[in-house]
Each structure stands twice: as structure tokens, then as C-alpha cells.
Amino acid sequence: MARRIDSYLKDLIPAEKLAFYEAVRDFGDSEIAPHLLHWERSHSLVPDSCIQAMGDMGLFGLPIAEAYGGQGGDHTDLVLMGLALAYHSQAVAITPGAAISLGAKPLQLCGTEAQKQAHLPALAKGERMFVFGLSEPGRGSDAANPQVTAVKKGDRWVLNGEKCWSTNARWASHVVVHALTNPTGQNGKRSTCFIVPMGQKGVFYQEMQGKKVWEQSSTGSIMLENVEVPHDAILGAENDGFKVMVTTLNGGRLFIASLALGSLAFALDKCRVYAEERLQFDDKPIGRFQRVQDVIVDMDIALESGLTWLLHLCRLYEAGTLSREQAAKIKVECSRRASDLIVLAMEICGGVACFDEFGLIRHHNDLFVTRVGEGSNFALKDLIVRPLRQA
Distance between CA 293 and CA 285 in Å, rounded? Predict the structure, then answer.
């Protein structure tokens, strides 16, 4: 069956990018879709063999410069990967997605040349993976004031505290820790980011149990107990950690929007086909009913408008002109629109939509993460409204 999303992308991106999207799409069809139900029912994370296959495709090095062993792509390529892989599974898509947008990206944007030389080649091959250490048990939206601390002792720093909701923690070689270093400083100038090896003495990882969203994705808690790192472990400038985090999240929110649209694209195709195959009332398809048609049309409009907007913002990101408000808006709108519409799509399909094999319940559950990940929608609306309150 032809995907509705493909018809829109053909008009929105150049031929070479479409060819890349189609290659990742075909990979998803052959290497993810046939195994996804088994992974879900066996409660397993993305297998190492799948991660290796994505590494062999070069997905972990998409936006990393060729000089560091990457593919030399741009943010549009990252978003296209998200759209292609999330069509089947957001949990699979976020594995290379977070490794790039939350792992390699802060290093690309804020790292020293020595740090880039030391890590980017291995990150590009998928041989090494950075995890983003931002969220904490007592800190989510208030990211400017972490509870994890870093205290300077001579020429070293000592880190203590806990990070949680860390995507890819199971496979991470290093964690980028956002820590409080200047408690009395002005807001936004109180923290510093550190590159910390997961094998460092005092670093403990534990997979978070009971998660019912992104079930194939690793989500870990990382404890830091008197972890000592040298001064050159700082990523960016001292007391400038919040800037590193904000810069990173700007692009990450575009990727989260792509996950939401990937799920919406799947739901649209599933629903429109089911509506023509499901016969009721004189053995005629339920797709003839106006209320069913309304939902399908709304999904189609949301998909086309979301894609057009998202790819436009990718161009702004690459030009360095994307604002925090714009990144927040697309993430909020795509996540809430897709999650609202998939509930209606499930109503159309009825009881079958509750079964894992049908696929809609997976996307329904995973879409919740897009509403709270990389900044909850409620918190982001506070950011979005600020320019609107200016006289």
C-alpha cells in the first residue's frame, strides 16, 4: 500500500533527500516491522543487531561532518529518518534519534576540537553513544536549576546526584551531565555540562522499570556518587550549561515532532484502509459515513500541514535562525494533534484497535511521550506565550 506521507514528501524535499528517506523507510519495512510484535511481546529492548544494522547504514552519523567520519548531512536528514522509522515504532526511531540530537549534537555545537576528535568518529559509527543527562527525580521543567551538583576540588570536579529518564542509557558510553556549579549565580548561569564516561568510578546505571511507552527504548536512571572528572571534561563553558542544554533541545524538538507525524502517518493509512475494508449495514464499507470521513480528512490535513511546517523549520535551523518559540510550537502542535486524532482513529476501528498486532495502540501510547518529552507541552506554552505578552 502506498503511504500517504510519501506523496507529500515528494513535493517537499529534493530527489536526493527523498531517496534517503525511501532507503530508511525500506529498512524499517524489512528489518523492523516483521520483528516488532515479537520484541513487544517478549518485552525486549531494541536488539543489538538492529542497532548495528542502523550503524552500518550510517544513521548514527547523519549530521556529523565527513571530517569526523559522519555522513555530512543536515537536520532535515535527521527528521526524515524520524519520519521513516517512527511509522512503525517511535521506540526504534528514538534510538538513533536521541543518540544524534541529544548525544552527538551538543558535542558538535559546543565541544572543543579535542573533544570532537576524541568522540565524534566513534559516535558516527554507532560504536559509542552519548546519553543526555538533564531530567532528575525532582527536576523536569525547571531545567535551569539542576539538583545534581559539581564541586570544584583543585583541578578536578566532584559530581553527585541522580539523572533519570535518560534515553539510550543501556547502550551509552558517556553521559553529558548537567550539574549545578554556581548556586548563587544569575538564572541560566548556574550550571555546567560535563562529559562523564559511564564506566567511571561512582557512576551507576539502572534501567527504569514499568514503563508502558517507548517500550523498546532504553530509559535509565544514572546515579553519580563522588564522581571525579578533570576540568577538560566540561562541555561548553563553565557555568554555561543551561545554554548547552537549550541549544541542544531546539533541534531535538523538531525530531520529536517528526516522531509524532510518523505515528500520525501510520494511523492515517491504517484507518483509511480499514474504513474501506470494514463492511457493516448492508455490507457496505464504513468509509461512506460522513463522521468517519471527517476523521480521515482531519488526519490527512494535519499530516500535510505538519510536514510542510516541520521541513520549513528544519531549513531555519540549518540557517541558524530558528527561535526557541518556533521549535516549541511545532513540537506542541504536532504532538497534541497526532495524539488527539489517533484516539478518533481508534474509535473508527473499534475493538481491533486495542490489539498490539493492529498497531494503533502502540502509537497511541508512544504519542504521549511526544507531549512530555524534550519539555512538556504545558511548560513550553509558557515559553511560547512570552513574545505575545510584550507590548
Answer: 11
pTM score above 0.85: yes
Domain boundaries, position 16: 4-127
Q: Return d(Cα 296, Cα 361) in angstroms, integer.
A: 17
Residues 263 and 377 in one domain: yes
- SS3 (DSSP) at 374: coil
Q: Considering 214, 242, 270, which residue would you say is the last residue of a domain?
A: 242
Residues 258 and 231 in one domain: no
CB-based burial label for 336 (10 Å; 0-12, 13-18, 19+): middle
Spatial separation of the C-alpha atoms in residues 175 and 187, rounded to whole Å: 24
Q: Is 225 a catalytic residue?
A: no
Question: From the candidates 136, 162, 333, 374, which is the catalytic residue?
Answer: 374
CATH number at residue 34: 1.10.540.10
Confidence of residue 391 (pLDDT cuts 50, 70, 90): low
pLDDT in tens, 102-119: 999 999 999 999 999 999
